Amino acid sequence: MWGRKRTRRERVDANLEAVEQTLGSTDRAHEGLMELVTATADEIEAVQALLGGRDGVPVDAISRQLEAALSTLGELQDVSQQYLDNRERAVAELRNGIDAALPWLEVLVEQADGMAEAGEELVGMTQALAGVRVKTERLRGELVPLRERVHAAVRAALGELHAAQGAEGWYGWQAELAALGDRLTALDEGRVVPTPEFKIGDRYRVVEREVATLRDAMARAVR
């Protein structure tokens, strides 16, 4: 009789140890995912800090990339909460015995596998965001002299337009320069979306060339 009781106790202990191991494994998967979520959120914040400076950085294009990342983080927060809820239910069911908790433990194991896969995808996303941050920082530096040059040309053109007031074609020049100013503002505010063939720097240079062409036209007309 005592031998039977000892065997049952050993069986119960073994079952409880298996449950603890299962919960430990799934908890590690959950904690690992949450660490990656935090790392991704930090990278998103680092990129966001580079936006909105009216320095030519393509805010709209970068913001679209960040929106996708933020959406993914929101979904993973939901996954995290679902895991915590199911874990709580599994622990509660243990009071009714291993068999009662088993279905919930199986759910946790399945969720842990899904969280591991999501973590791998999140690593790639975080690396991509780091690439966006590095490129954005580099672009800001590269645009400084170009932007200063274009803005200086626009200011000079405004002075020359004022000096040419009354000349034939003046209203056309005024409208053209205003349109160029609007395009320059759109570039500065990051509302222009770059393409692989036509980058932000290229668009600034186009404005610069058109301002130079306008200034030449005004200069010839007032001679």
Task: Write the topology of this structure.
Layout (H helix, E strand, L loop, with lengths): L1 H47 L10 H35 L4 H66 L6 H19 L11 H22 L2
Helix pairs in contact: 1-2, 1-3, 2-3, 3-4, 3-5, 4-5
Describe the structure.
This protein has 223 residues and is mainly α. It has 5 helices and no strands. The chain has helices spanning 2-48, 59-93, 98-163, 170-188, 200-221. It starts with a helix and ends with a helix. The model is unreliable at 1-6 (pLDDT under 50).
Brief summary of the model shown:
Helix content is 85%, strand content 0%. It contains five helices and no strands. Helix 1 runs parallel beside helix 3 (98-163).
What is the gyration radius calculated from CA atoms? 31 Å
Q: Specify the number of helices.
A: 5
Shape: rod-shaped
Model regions low in confidence, pLDDT < 50 over at least 5 residues:
1-6
H-E order: HHHHH
Average pLDDT taken over every residue: 91
How many angstroms does the end-to-end distance come to?
Answer: 119 Å
- The number of E-state strands comes to 0
Assess the beta-strand content as a share of residues: under 5%
Structural class: mainly alpha
Oligomer status = single chain
Helical fraction equals over 70%
Largest sheet: none
